[in-house]
Design goal:
Shape: globular
Radius of gyration: 26 Å
Distance between the termini: 47 Å
Number of strands: 12
Length: 503
């Protein structure tokens, strides 16, 4: 919860100090800033483009070595192996929470996940997969799958991926990127609209991707909606152990109310901003002037922040932020209401003023950093799209804002929120392990009820022979290596959670 002594005056002082400090640092660092140039006559800023140096010889050798040691896998093979190792398939089942009345739930759930994930359709998939009918796949998808169970299975995969050594080579999980992808749909869909950009009907799959290169959460939203209203929703609904505090997006991932709400909830919103040269900077007071960057703030005495309004609306800002954090109101619903048409609404005006502060601070901090520092902090950290110097229209990306006390409601608890033989998929052959067949005892790591909590790791050496038979029915053996190791490579080692591994 909010700390003792935190009130409207403290919040106002935090914002004022943040804005004054960022603008003063940008003004003092401008003479030494080689990347930023402000036209003395027009006051229009411009950023010098960054030229990449290309791959080094050592990076090319590393890429060749990885390709030599890492065999290609088919999509069904990947699904089968992860289902066996992580046991995510046990999340699915009837809505009653009882054991599935299926002869082979492991194979049926893996096949259904493949069919739905590839958007192939059950009856089209049944034409190419022997031993299963379209009715069986459709029945399993409608009766044993749901959005809630699917998100639980995704969280299991994200948690298992976060414990792998290789995932730490990409990032530490504190940052994520959000962007949308057009998906074709039928016209008689409630979310289907004709996209002006793509010229065909469909919807937008809005993904949140972690800096460890794994998808955390996905929304399906209509075409034409401003994507920024959904950017915080995905962060709050992410129930995995990977909880990013920094989110990158494109121009549609930002607006003044979104900047404000992200700040109140403890997130650093750092989008690429198209046409940033026309962005207005805001002064902390009418008397504030700067030596080098004053042209960015417009005419002297104008474009100032109304801190009195922010202070007077403090209780409403906190009430809204806590309601969103606790799940009493959806952030997307709130942000749809906080739009430019609500100018007469005092709460919207307060959100707008806070957003102006945060956006001005972000741009000031970004420009005051050397290009090499931005690259080292963000580009090499795994999110390439965060740096957009130059390019058509010019885009500028955010850098981490140095604010120790800027997170207002961050303390509020978040609601619980291939190998050729991989293609041998014959559901008729073999069985799943005896301890997970329908009608027999539950595994020790599975609780009754629809919301099942799973053990985080599986020791492959300790598995029964029946489980090996169940995996072999997909043409895959546990720990099986289909390609010989590269010269000089040791035995294949599969790292599992809690330090377990199998060779």
């Amino acid at each position: 919860m909010l700390g003792d002594g935190f009130d409207a005056q403290v919040f106002r002082r935090q914002l004022e100090d943040m804005l004054r400090g960022a603008a003063a640092a940008a003004d003092a660092g401008y003479p030494d800033n080689e990347g930023l140039v402000i036209d003395p006559e027009t006051g229009i800023p411009s950023l010098k483009p960054h030229r990449p140096e290309g791959l080094t010889p050592s990076a090319k050798r590393l890429e060749q070595e990885i390709k030599a040691r890492m065999p290609e896998r088919t999509l069904i093979g990947i699904l089968s192996r992860t289902a066996y190792w992580v046991q995510w398939w046990r999340r699915f089942g009837p809505a009653s929470g009882n054991e599935p009345k299926l002869a082979d739930p492991f194979g049926r759930y893996v096949l259904t996940t493949f069919v739905k994930g590839t958007n192939m359709g059950p009856y089209e998939a049944a034409r190419h997969i022997p031993g299963v009918s379209g009715h069986e796949l459709s029945y399993t998808a409608n009766r044993h799958f749901s959005i809630v169970l699917l998100n639980e299975a995704i969280a299991d995969l994200v948690n298992a991926h976060a414990r792998l050594d290789i995932s730490q080579a990409w990032g530490d999980g504190t940052a994520a990127a959000a962007d949308g992808t057009h998906m074709d749909t039928y016209l008689d869909n409630l979310l289907a609209e004709t996209s002006v950009r793509y010229g065909k009907p469909g919807g937008i799959a809005y993904h949140h991707i972690s800096d460890t290169y794994i998808a955390l959460f996905t929304h399906f939203i209509p075409c034409g909606v401003w994507e920024a209203v959904y950017i915080i929703e995905g962060l709050l609904k992410n129930t995995s152990e990977v909880q990013p505090t920094t989110v990158h997006a494109d121009t549609q991932g930002q607006s003044q109310p979104v900047f404000a709400l992200a700040h109140l909830l403890g997130f650093d919103l750092m989008p690429r901003i198209r046409n940033w040269k026309g962005m207005t900077f805001y002064r902390p007071s009418k008397q504030t002037e700067y030596v080098h960057i004053d042209a960015l703030f417009g005419e002297p005495g104008k474009n100032t922040i109304d801190f009195d309004l922010i202070e007077s609306q403090f209780r409403h800002l906190m009430r809204v932020a806590v309601s969103v954090r606790e799940g009493a109101i959806s952030s997307s619903t709130l942000l749809k209401r906080l739009r430019s048409g609500s100018k007469k609404n005092a709460t919207y005006a307060a959100f707008r003023e806070v957003g102006r502060v945060i956006r001005t601070v972000q741009l000031s901090v970004t420009w005051n950093l050397a290009v090499a520092e931005i690259i080292s902090v963000r580009y090499d950290h795994g999110l390439r799209r965060c740096v957009g110097h130059g390019g058509a229209g010019g885009e500028v990306a955010g850098a981490r804002q140095a604010r120790a006390s800027g997170r207002v409601v961050a303390g509020v608890d978040r609601p619980g929120a291939g190998a050729p033989d991989d293609r041998r998929l014959c559901p008729r052959i073999g069985r799943v392990p005896g301890d997970v067949r329908a009608g027999e005892r539950r595994p020790a790591d599975r609780e009754p009820g629809p919301h099942r909590r799973l053990c985080t790791g599986v020791d492959l050496k300790a598995e029964s022979s029946g489980c090996e038979c169940g995996l072999n029915r997909l043409g895959l053996g546990p720990g099986q290596r289909h390609h010989p190791a590269a010269p000089g490579a040791g035995p294949a080692v599969l790292r599992l959670p809690h330090g377990r591994r199998t060779a």
